[in-house]
Amino acid sequence: MAKDHICYLVGNENEIDLWNQPWHPKGILTSLISKGKTDSSLVTLSNLNDIHHEGDWNPILDKPSLKEEKALLMKAMFNTDNTNRVIWKPTVDGTFCTRSAWESIRSVEQTIPWSKTIWFKGHIPRDAFVAWKALHLKLTTKDHIILSNSTIDNNCLLCNSEAETFDHIFFQCSFSSWVGRIWMERIQRIFEQKRRHKIQILREILANIKIKVNGLPLQDEDTATRKWIAENLVYKHICKINHHKVSTWFKPDEEEFKVNTDASLEEERSGIGGIIRDHEGLPILIFSKDTCSDQIYALEMSAIYLGITRAREMEIKKTWIEFDSLFAVNVIQGNTPMPWKIYSLVY
Predict the structure, then answer these.
(1) Where are the extended beta strands (E) located within the chain?
(2) Which pTM was predicted?
(3) Considering the domain 247-346 in this protein, what is its CATH number?
């Protein structure tokens, strides 16, 4: 396959074996010219220099019996700097690169309509890969696994009432009919032995909807739809919006990201979380975590640490961190004595 994309640029004929080296664009000369059928005067030559020297071809090629051989040989490519080079034809400068190799051998098909839905700028690789597999019906649901292991139980892990198939999990399961993020919950139940109540998952979904509706920029073509979602689904039926104050969110520089973190402490529960946005203000990741701490300063520092960790997992190199805890600012700057409970988070 590679030989179709390379050719020789001959500069020093003395180094080239006339018959056994691939100096000709069409390949090795023995595969192009039969020695038993061509003129013997050509067969006796062994070096390319014998037939081509300093830009001139050997006069023996003017023989009528070598007319076809001459036409073939004159398609060779010669270099003027006295060096022999291997040229990678797919690139302009003849230098090999992996991308050009892939572009030259891959099969180019028509772009599918949902490609930008999966592979967009700032996508989360793990989530995009799962979505891509789902659209190709290649998720490892039990109806696929049972083909190689007939001993497993094929009941759905979520509702435990019907056979587990792609259509069942996403469209028919009584558990998934009203709860999102089904696949991640299933993975946690299988590999991490973690189970969340439906209400916990629902709260996470509603928080994501609220942030996305508030954070995504409206476009002319989807303003009406987005407005309807905000007014009829999110604000009226799901989210309780408190209009206490107006805050200004400053966008990070281009190709940089901003992490906003916060913490919450109530009588019987606490939690931390945040959001990562790109330079256009588009949310690319929402994260949260239940905690058992009863100290708000420890929660604030834990939220910052979690935000930095999530950014590193996404291989984000330039990150702004934004939070509303003056205590955390003073601790990081060394202006406030550090409680021992958060020492490990800072150092």
Answers:
(1) 6-9, 52-53, 56-57, 85-88, 257-265, 270-277, 283-291, 319-322
(2) 0.31
(3) 3.30.420.10
